[in-house]
Write a structure and sequence with these properties.
304 residues, 7% strand, four-stranded antiparallel beta sheet, single chain, alpha+beta, elongated, Alpha-Beta Plaits
């Protein structure tokens, strides 16, 4: 184990030596890769901030079930049993017509006007509260349930208030897919930049590599510093991209604050927390390592 650490320590030191030989080129490559990473990192930050907001907005959808006026109270109350069979995990609330009228008087402030109607015009009803859903596919299940409820005896009409929730969920899914495609495209750019950087290093150190082979150096020993160089490039670029995104949140929050005040909100964009940021840094280093691996396997193989 000690020998393993010593070999990797030597490879890391060799990679840093290679970087010091051409710091300007290395820094320029870091900047190019950081720009490519900044867009998906910003998208990840925006989605990470919007997701809790969308979860708060995606309230439990409700289905309102209105009973026909001529249906007796006991028959209306007996509908609770088939309702529970169709919506097993839902919360079912029976609202007598008298309570519905009292609620209308309290909320509308038109109690005097409603009193002139004489008979209560409101029917008995049920409110079926479902679990919140965040995908359009789950929303379709709610629509199917609403159609089944319409077929129950004595039901006059069914109303469902989930259309806006489905639109929000579908929009978030589209944004996630677009971000994944963007990340895949720019990830390919990162690999290509690292690939070319390592290729140039291999060409620059060609004679040094040949001498190392002559004195008995193994391919693994020769390849390892280039792997570390690629990983370091990706890691540094990822850190620079995260820093740039964090700085960009300042002016963005100033603009968002003015818009949020119009809706009596204090919404602000926050930087990624420690674990997601560490994951993105690991991903950046991994992309750099992949680019270095591909370049080394392609170009150093020609020197064998």
């Amino acid at each position: 184990m000690t020998n393993w650490f010593r070999q990797h320590g030597f490879a890391l030191a060799a990679a840093l030596v290679h970087v010091r030989r051409a710091p300007g080129s290395f820094l320029f490559n870091i900047l190019v890769v950081a720009i490519a990473l900044a867009l998906p990192f910003m998208g990840m930050t925006l989605l990470d901030n919007v997701r809790p907001l969308s979860e708060q907005m995606s309230v439990d959808p409700e289905i309102s079930l209105f009973i026909k006026q001529d249906v007796p109270r006991d028959q209306a109350a007996s509908l609770a049993t088939p309702l529970r069979e169709l919506a097993r995990e839902a919360k079912i609330i029976f609202v007598p017509r008298e309570k519905a009228l009292d609620n209308l008087k309290d909320k509308s402030g038109l109690s005097d006007v409603l009193a002139t109607l004489g008979d209560n015009p409101l029917p008995d009803s049920y409110i079926v509260k479902l679990d919140a859903f965040r995908t359009a596919a789950t929303g379709l299940d709610v629509d199917v349930l609403a159609e089944q409820l319409r077929l129950l005896p004595g039901v006059e009409s069914v109303q469902i208030d989930s259309a806006w929730v489905k639109r929000l969920a579908a929009l978030i899914n589209i944004l996630k897919l677009a971000l994944m495609l963007l990340a895949a495209t720019l990830g390919t750019v990162v690999v290509a930049v690292v690939f070319n950087t390592i290729r140039l290093q291999v060409l620059t150190q060609r004679e040094e590599i040949l001498v190392s082979k002559l004195i008995g150096a193994t391919d693994t020993f020769i390849h390892r510093p280039f792997y570390y160089t690629g990983a370091l490039l990706g890691l540094c670029a990822g850190g620079l991209a995260l820093g740039g995104v964090a700085l960009a949140l300042g002016p963005l929050n100033n603009a968002i604050a003015e818009f949020a005040r119009l809706y009596a909100s204090e919404f602000r964009l926050a930087p990624l927390s420690a674990w997601p940021a560490a994951g993105l840094l690991a991903l950046s280093a991994g992309l750099g390592l992949i680019g270095a691996l591909l370049s080394v396997q392609r170009h150093l193989a020609k020197l064998n």
